[in-house]
Specification:
The chain has 170 residues and is mostly helical. It is 72% helix and 0% strand. It is globular and about 45 Å long.
């Protein structure tokens, strides 16, 4: 990805001022992500990865990490949402898509409900709103990370980012 391509790609979303200032130094997404991590712009790295992955891989990645890092006990809403998304990932049938319907599982914004929204939108074969899907994936990850102390957040960010990079390299 050339610098101009990287700049164009990153204009799809809002990055922090610090992350924006580093774009011009890079023509390679991997090196840019490395510098973001080195400078502790973790939320920017998560956002970029969530947009760079295919919608299906972004949902898989978020489902794995958001559920893993939710504090126990997981709310019934989040548990139902993650179950619906997991079932949809295994079998993207219309029945499983309908089980991710927001009105069936959402009564407040949460990591699980954001991910359920992403899965519901992603399974719209006619016109999936990809920007909203990636935003919902990012929101799911951020809601799961931000419930922890700053010290714990850093470890969770680093683990999720490393796994997201692995998904990018598949």
């Amino acid at each position: 990805m050339k610098t101009t391509d990287l700049e164009k790609f990153c204009k799809q979303f809002v990055l922090s001022n610090g992350a924006n200032s580093l774009i011009a130094n890079h023509n390679n997404l991997d090196l840019y992500l490395s510098e973001l991590i080195e400078n502790r712009y973790y939320s920017d790295a998560l956002l970029i990865i969530s947009y760079r992955l295919s919608t299906l891989n972004a949902i898989r990645w978020a489902c794995k990490h958001a559920k893993h890092y939710l504090k126990s006990p997981i709310s019934e809403q989040d548990n139902n949402a993650f179950s619906a998304v997991t079932n949809w990932l295994k079998d993207p049938s219309e029945l499983n898509r309908n089980n991710t319907l927001p009105n069936k599982i959402i009564n407040r914004p949460s990591a699980g409900s954001c991910l359920a929204m992403a899965a519901f939108w992603a399974s719209d074969n006619d016109n999936p709103p990809t920007e909203l899907i990636h935003d919902a994936v990012y929101s799911s990850l951020m809601l799961s990370v931000l419930q922890f102390s700053e010290h714990d957040q850093e470890n969770i960010y680093q683990h999720a980012i490393a796994d997201g990079i692995n998904y990018l390299n598949c």
